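Homework help board

Subject: predicted structure for assignment chain

Our instructor gave us this sequence and asked us to write out the predicted structure in token form, then describe one feature. I got the tokens but I'm not sure how to describe them. Can anyone check?
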Amino acid sequence: MEEQSSAAFRAMSDAVLAVAAEREVEPILQKLVHAARELVGSRYAALGIPDDEEGFSQFLTSGMSDELVSALGPLPRTHGLLGAMLESEQPFRATDIRQDPRFRGWWPRRHPEMRSFLGVPIVARTGIIGAFYLTEKQGGGEFSIADQQLIEMLAAHAAIAIQNGRLNERSRELSIVEERNRLARELHDAVTQKLFGIVLATETVATLLDADPAKARAQLTRLRELAQEAMDELRSLIFELRPAALEAEGLATTLRKHVDVLRRVFRREIGLRIGDVPRLAPATDAEVLRIAQEALQNAIRHAHAERIDVQLGATDGRVRLTVTDDGVGFDPGAAKLRARRLGLTSMEERAVALGGRLEIRSDPGAGTTVELEVGL
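My token output:
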């Protein structure tokens, strides 16, 4: 009995650690399903998350081979006892599932026989968001009240994992929307204006062709310059849509590649000094890179800087990013609308989310410095 309790404790401990260690929700839930089967000694276990169409958006299993799962066909529907566990917060145990009136009386071909059953809803503040299903208690007999209590504890951790996963997904969606809006602004502010200039230059050339060929040739030269500038702007935006593999290459390498592209596209002098920077969490690397990109875009497109200096390093347990330019500068406190347009609010929010500090120093005609500090 003591050995069984020790094994159950280890399984529960591993499951809790899995919730803390993983960022993606599906690997967490898969580990919880395996832990549930081990905790109570069942032959089969599953975790189902319902969708809004009387089915399951996810149905993760343990104890079945991939070949068997594939042979069973599409995900089950939320009917019978599967659905019953999503309607009441009360767990349910049965010696023989086939004797329950809610049992539909049939299984897909190749579905294993199942008798003993333990169902435990996964309950969040908003209600039931899923359920554990365990069948075929090894050694015969039925699942005990102790088994039920163990799975109830596991279900509480599953609820946290599912809710956190949904919050992370929502956060990613908001980040995507924010990035799309930023790129839309860049397209409007830079590319659209240049294309409008091309249209005007073309109309001028058409007017001058017969009246003043020399001026027409000058306008053609300007037309070619505008077209080249528009192409450069588009290349820069395309690079931002398809950045280097940050997670694989790290922040330092990705930032170096980004600066190289900006040098070629905008023909600006951009100094870059990168010290010994340790690998950070992927999400932290991504946010620091976004802040660097926003600061560089502001320096190039809005401050019209001729010289930009970027420094990235780590000292005293903190990563420090500094972007300095010699552009037109501005008064950071003078106009909230302008600050929002320059992405300063977005940069500040990213820094706060990282638990870091963002300082923006600028004066009209004196350039701008953006400095970010993030703890390791």
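Reply (TA_rk): Your tokens look well-formed. For the description, you could write something like this. The two ends are 45 Å apart (CA to CA). That's the kind of observation they're looking for.
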